[in-house]
Amino acid sequence: MSTRRAARSGVLRSQSPLPPFSRRSLLAGAGVVLAAALPGCGRSSPVSQSASGSAGPLRIGAIPDQDPEVLQRLYGTVADSMSAALDLDVEYRPVTDYGAAVSLFRTGDLDLVWFGGLTGVQARLQTPGAEPVAQRDIDERFTSVFVVNAATGLTPSDDLAPLAPLRFTYGSETSTSGRLMPAYFLREAGVDPQGFPGGPGFSGSHDATLQLVASGSYQAGVLNKQVWTSRSEEGSVDPSVVLHTETPPYHDYHWLLGPRAAERLGVDDLGGRLIDYFTGLSAGDPADAEVLELFGAGSFIPTEVANYDQIEEIGRDLGLVS
Amino acid sequence: MTTVLDRPVRPVVARLRRDRRRWAWALGAAAVLLWSLAGAGLFTGDVVNPGGTAQFGRFAAAALSPALDAGFLGLLASSALVTVAYAVLGTALALALGAVGAVLVSRTTWGRRRLGWLLSRGVLAVPRGLHEAVWGLLLVNVLGLDPWVGILAIGIPYGAVTAKVFADLVDEVPRGAHSALLAAGAGRASATLYGLLPPAAGGLLSYSAYRLECAVRSAVVLGMVGAGGLGYQLSLSFASLRWEQVWSCVYALSLLCLAADVAGRAVRRRLAAPPPGPGRDPVLTGAVVVPLLLVAWSWWYLAVSPASLVSARTAEQLAHVLGAAWPPATDGALLGSLGALAVDTVQMSVIAIAVAALGAVLLAGAAARPPGRLSPARRVGGAVVRTVLLLLRAVPPPVWALVLLFVLLPGVLPGALALGVYTLGVLGRLTAEAVEELDPRPRAALAALGARPVGAWLYGVLPGAAGPVLAYALYRWEVAIRDTVLVGLLGAGGLGALLASEIAAFDWAAVTTVLAAIVVLTLLVDLVSDRARSVMR
User: Fold this and answer.
1) What angle do CA A103, B221, B249 make, to 5 degrees?
2) Which residue stretches belong to region Disordered (chain A) (predicted)?
3) Average pLDDT score over chain A
4) Which of B143, B150, B177, B289 could form a disulfide with B195 if both were Cys (CB 3.0 to 4.6 A apart)?
5) Nearest CA in chain B to A29
């Protein structure tokens, strides 16, 4: 037997650590794999669907801000309620990143998004034709609270100047209540919002801000009033965190509707119907009440672009809106 | 016929000598470490915050009481499937790209044309220099919510790394068979196929299994930027600091990593010691068939459609992002801050690697599984250390950064240590494997002569282990530079913090500039670590 034939018939297999495969088994394997993959063409993905193609459902999303865990995992409730009221297929799509939510709104992957004040402005400026639909009753007069660690010895006051020499943390970078408006009020009070010893930190979330101030790593921080109230009522705020100042009110969260949804879904006046749906939610109806409670709202009210002009202006000053 | 070898098979006694260059490198490394620690403020003020031990304790205590309610576990199970599918498809793409890329960048291809070889390596540095999470963020802007985001974000940077490693593996294979084939008149392609690939196959397969485990962890980081899966659940629970749920996610992730690791180890063992007898080895056949089936299943499960890669919308969004990103921002303020932040980034990565390398050397002996019978205490101890290492690398760096910030004051140090413990998880595993492959005889001899265990370890294991450990540490240094992107925000600073704020502000021109700076920094670190490794060889 020649060496070549010996090699072909596998006698010299010690040459290769891999098992020899005959051409037939290779082809058969490839065929099985292809056959297994083909049905995927008609399947919908567990993570997303391609935005092109048929009309599809109304795709809603939300930026992960307060209680993202509750909000995002229970969003099915909102989708179901909206679907029943509007007689439309509504699908909730999870997003965990502020920037990603804005981008997905621009690309048309999300039709209707629950944005914060600043992210709403970013999304509206990047997506011509987008319109604000509704806000909660509390969003009209939203506030942030500055908190300090008790060890600083600071007592509640309206003066922000004593915060300047402290290690200070914001929440997420593009959070309206955890970054933008507090930075504005700090500057109004004569404190450099990018100053602070070692530069300000960005904890990433309101809850993280609370914990970091409690630990004393940061001596002061700022978070949204809604989270502060709800954590205080739960009794989960560490006693070493004390309230220092509450900011004046400003507009914050709102639902923003993308320009392409109405046409794609073939629904005239989609914006109007959504406003009717949101403002029509009443605490008396058990199903509605569930949605309202999820958002921590008493009711939803209409809103308009002009409400966010101040946020846009401050965002430009801070280099967050371009 | 008797063949006389022209050189001894193995040098009987290694020549004892002091290498001046090694001393220079060692002193330089010590100086850089001191400089980094000084930069982190270790010698100038307080860095520890004892007030935060309660918060840290809450995180640690939750490890013992993970969330186990049925609803959450169901959620984790379906999320784990998504993560597995991303990891499998990402790895498959990386291996395909790596196989093609390896041909383009191996010394075998370029021969003596050094310039072409260098250039091709330089091109690879661009996709490699950006972290998977950065790729994910960029791709979300072009592809939207599409499974391709996760697959490409893993596949592109991993493909570049794989190409480099595959090329090195093939280049380092003994050339005898290859030269013989060429001399016998075979073409270059067939000489490579039959002369180089078979002996390199073991290394290639083993590295592929390692990549799969890395891909599982990367898929989790990607979930944090919106690709879904375990990372998505983890980041939701992390944002509201529900540590019990975070730990459940970490345990689920650990199980996936463990499965990939165990499978890879089984295959490696079979390759090293094939069972005698004719017929096909079922384990190795499975090692080829199961991944193929997994790829098909993942493709089906994620409903991947190649059409969305070339759709009109993708082209439109790509044009939008590229139009906004070019030309890069060149204003003085931005360029000025790049320098200072790059210093922070380097210091952070140096501390991280020093912590990881030290920990890896100390733990390697306990984590390794030496051949032969072991005492029950040694077995249990080894399993505990290996589990701890697995958990260290299963907790994503951003989570480490926050919990370490509870007990450390803000600055470079929390970020550096976060990367350090995470890298220790990876490096500890690699080191343990290196120790397993060491010659056991010096230690056995010392023990037989009556040396204490510590002495036997110091003189019998450490000298042999130091080389591979340092080589791995230098290799991970480059990875750590990329990983600083993940921990930059929390007051830790560095280029990562700047990148995150430019992305948050949608300032694409500035994003381009920062990305370019990160790629250049990665390339520089790669060159330095390559020089250092060549000195150690």
Assistant:
1) 120
2) 43-63
3) 83
4) B177
5) B289
CB A111 within 8 A of CB A58: yes
- Residue B474, helix vs strand vs coil: helix
User: Using a CB-CB distance cutoff of 8 angstroms, which residues of chain A are in contact with residue B497?
Assistant: 202
State how far the Cα of A122 lies from the Cα of A107, in Å rounded to an integer. 13
By DSSP bridging, strand A254-257 and strand A168-170 are unpaired
Q: Does B302 contact A34 at a Cβ distance shorter than 8 Å?
A: no
- For the stretch B465-480, pLDDT in tens is 777 788 888 888 988 8
The span from the CA of A196 to the CA of B240, in Å, is: 26
Residue A145: which H helix or E strand, with range?
strand A144-149
Q: What are A126-185's pLDDT values in tens digits? A: 999 999 999 999 998 999 999 999 999 998 988 999 999 999 999 988 899 999 999 999
Q: Which CATH superfamily is domain A58-140+252-317 in?
A: Periplasmic binding protein-like II (3.40.190.10)
CATH number of A143-246: 3.40.190.10
Size of interface A-B (CB pairs under 8 A): 239
ipTM: 0.84
Shortest CA gap B497–chain A (Å): 9
* DSSP category for residue B274: P
> Which residues of A, range 189-248, sit inside 8 Å of B by Cβ?
198-205, 207-208, 211-212, 214-218, 238, 240
Coil, strand or helix at B232: helix
Task: Tell me the three state secondary structure of residue A54.
Answer: coil
Instruction: Tell me if A216 and B198 make a contact (CB, 8 A cut-off).
Output: no
Structure letter (DSSP) for residue A136: E
